[in-house]
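Is this the right way to post structure tokens for a design question? Let me know if I should format differently. Anyway, here goes:
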């Protein structure tokens, strides 16, 4: 059986990332960038598609593991019949060549260890040529060369498939194994590290701890917030500031299904919440870098705005399939690239303009040409906002008049007007105000279902969509509006074992909307939006319960995938998902806006939640009578400083 998605931990050097299982196997690694071809791809296939396991020869899963506090340095420990050993995995923040360090340390007795490295370049497909050099073992295929270096005089055993090192560590002994990538055309091998492994470990640990101390959140869920922020930072491509949605591709939303997408890119729909999350957490430099990436990426004709870009801002991300990879637990096809680049999404314009507005409110300087960009974006949107699109969820079915897309068109006009008023740019404000009013009237008329007492997914539809929970956060309507309250109450219909699906499904297809077969799990971000909606509409204890259900499904090192399956108690989808962790931070801030009562909510993270979780608390005040339900401290919605206006 494949390693569970939640059994993987993340390490990163801020330009790429690796996924390490509880069995000590590194099963996913793309070098030298997040979006480079994978050289270890067992995550999406078998060991023959590439892995690197460092563990006791006679053990499978570890005894315990954890990140060193406030860092991305992973410690994995095994207790065996002869002794105990620790493997410390990390990737030094990039200075020269990308590399992975695996430090083996004897804790007690003596333990026989085995390192097996099976490299498969070009998406787990190409067997490299392996040879021994003075500085270590090198594997070469096409443009890539990967060097393996071991401290001391540990002999390596080579065959056509892999490189194996077998050694024994006693208490107090340490041995470092280093994997370094280099372009294969360079005549000289790269140095294993610029500094000794011990120094690299200290510098990496110090880097993450210095970065973590900047976090401004001081509420009851600080550990979870800091871990989420570290994860978001780890998914940032440092040279450009772009934030990838996840470091993986094709981890399925349904085991055995076809909802398998490549998330190693940067989505505009993540931009507003990502920036808000970074700003309110105290990370202005990261927010500024994300803004700079955004402005560069969308430069050009406004009609050419894309939903997704590469980490460098590249536009061409052709989607291909990899038939040689059997997929995670047989979930095929395995995809590389993402054809969402060619989809039409109206919400992108609102996301971009909301991001610019947040930056302006936060005092982040914007390039002089940005106002021309704003005018161009609004000129295009005024001509096209009536058109159907493929929506927030990037459906692969027919275009529709999605309500969320229209709400984001309103957001675009609203933020453009506010920026114009603040900057004294009055030329087009009258037209933009008129558009804002037109969109608002149409959404309230066409997007509201009087029978269901809720905003729905698209005009003329009765299907519920969790994106409607964003209406008060975006300022389209205040939380006190009865239409918002009705929408939050209606979202109970999306309940799946205490979590929230993104929209109503019949289990085979979603009313033809997304054009895909098969069911999917509940969405982590939607479950957190529901918690926000409960808090905003005056139900703080149910909001905390919904939030703590999400905290309970983090894995043992605090990571969240895109989805959760309450029926099987498993994470689903690409992992870790930046949007899930962004939503967690945002919800923690919203629920911590006022002090919690003594003995506030528990902070223990569970290995995984039970298969059948308790249903979500209802928005009308009913709910369970446990200790959590007795907490009655008031919680208010997002603070004014968040920069999102509330429509009066």
């Amino acid at each position: 059986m494949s390693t569970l998605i939640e059994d993987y931990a993340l390490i990163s050097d801020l330009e790429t990332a690796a996924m390490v299982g509880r069995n000590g196997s590194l099963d996913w690694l793309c070098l030298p960038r997040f979006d480079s071809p994978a050289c270890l791809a067992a995550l999406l296939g078998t060991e023959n598609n590439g892995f690197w396991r460092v563990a006791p020869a006679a053990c499978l899963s570890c005894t315990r593991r954890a990140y060193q506090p406030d860092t991305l340095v992973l410690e994995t420990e095994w207790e065996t019949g002869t002794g105990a050993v620790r493997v410390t995995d990390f990737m030094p923040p990039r200075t020269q060549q990308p590399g992975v360090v695996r430090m083996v340390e004897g804790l007690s007795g003596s333990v026989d260890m085995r390192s097996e490295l099976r490299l498969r370049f070009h998406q787990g497909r190409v067997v490299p040529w392996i040879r021994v050099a003075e500085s270590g073992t090198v594997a070469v295929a096409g443009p890539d060369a990967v060097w393996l270096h071991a401290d001391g005089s540990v002999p390596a055993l080579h065959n056509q498939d892999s490189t194996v090192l077998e050694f024994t560590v006693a208490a107090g002994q340490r041995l470092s194994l280093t994997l370094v990538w280099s372009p294969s055309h360079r005549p000289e091998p790269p140095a294993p590290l610029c500094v000794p492994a011990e120094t690299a470990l200290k510098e990496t640990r110090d880097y993450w701890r210095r970065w973590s101390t900047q976090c401004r959140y001081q509420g009851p869920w600080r550990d979870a917030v800091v871990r989420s922020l570290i994860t978001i930072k780890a998914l940032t491509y440092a040279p450009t500031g772009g934030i990838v949605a996840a470091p993986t591709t094709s981890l399925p939303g349904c085991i055995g299904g076809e909802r398998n997408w490549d998330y190693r890119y940067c989505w505009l729909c993540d931009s507003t919440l990502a920036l808000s999350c970074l700003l309110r957490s105290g990370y202005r430099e990261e927010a500024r870098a994300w803004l700079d990436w955004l402005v560069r990426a969308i430069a050009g004709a406004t009609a050419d705005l894309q939903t997704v870009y590469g980490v460098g801002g590249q536009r061409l991300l052709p989607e291909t399939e990899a038939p040689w990879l059997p997929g995670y637990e047989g979930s095929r096809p395995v995809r590389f690239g993402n054809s969402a680049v060619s989809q039409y999404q109206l919400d992108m314009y609102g996301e971009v303009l909301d991001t610019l507005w947040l930056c302006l409110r936060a005092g982040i300087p914007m390039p002089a040409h940005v106002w021309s960009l704003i005018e161009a974006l609004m000129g295009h949107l005024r001509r096209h906002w009536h058109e159907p699109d493929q929506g927030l969820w990037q459906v692969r079915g027919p275009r529709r008049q999605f309500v969320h897309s229209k709400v984001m068109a309103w957001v675009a006009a609203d933020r453009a007007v506010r920026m114009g008023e603040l900057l004294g740019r009055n030329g087009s404000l009258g037209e933009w105000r008129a558009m804002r009013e037109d969109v608002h009237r149409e959404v309230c008329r066409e997007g509201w279902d009087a029978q269901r007492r809720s905003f729905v997914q698209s005009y003329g539809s009765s299907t519920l969509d969790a994106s409607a929970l964003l209406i008060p956060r975006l300022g389209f309507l205040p939380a006190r509006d009865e239409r918002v309250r009705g929408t939050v109450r209606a979202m109970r219909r999306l309940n799946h074992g205490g979590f929230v699906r993104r929209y109503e499904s019949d289990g085979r297809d979603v009313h033809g909307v997304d054009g895909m077969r098969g069911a999917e799990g509940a969405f982590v971000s939607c479950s957190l939006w529901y918690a926000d909606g409960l808090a905003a509409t005056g139900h703080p204890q149910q909001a905390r319960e919904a939030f703590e259900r999400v905290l309970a499904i983090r894995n043992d090192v605090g990571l969240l995938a895109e989805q959760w399956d309450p029926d099987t108690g498993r994470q689903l989808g690409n992992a870790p998902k930046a949007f899930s962790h962004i939503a967690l931070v945002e919800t923690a801030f919203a629920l911590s806006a006022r002090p919690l009562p003594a003995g506030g909510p528990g902070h223990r993270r569970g290995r995984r939640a039970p298969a059948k979780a308790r249903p979500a608390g209802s928005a009308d005040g009913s709910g369970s009578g446990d200790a959590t339900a007795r907490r009655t401290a008031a919680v208010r919605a997002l603070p004014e400083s968040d920069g999102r206006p509330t429509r009066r």
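Format looks fine. Someone answered above. Worth noting: The chain has 14 helices and 28 strands. The CA atoms of residues 450 and 483 lie 9 Å apart.
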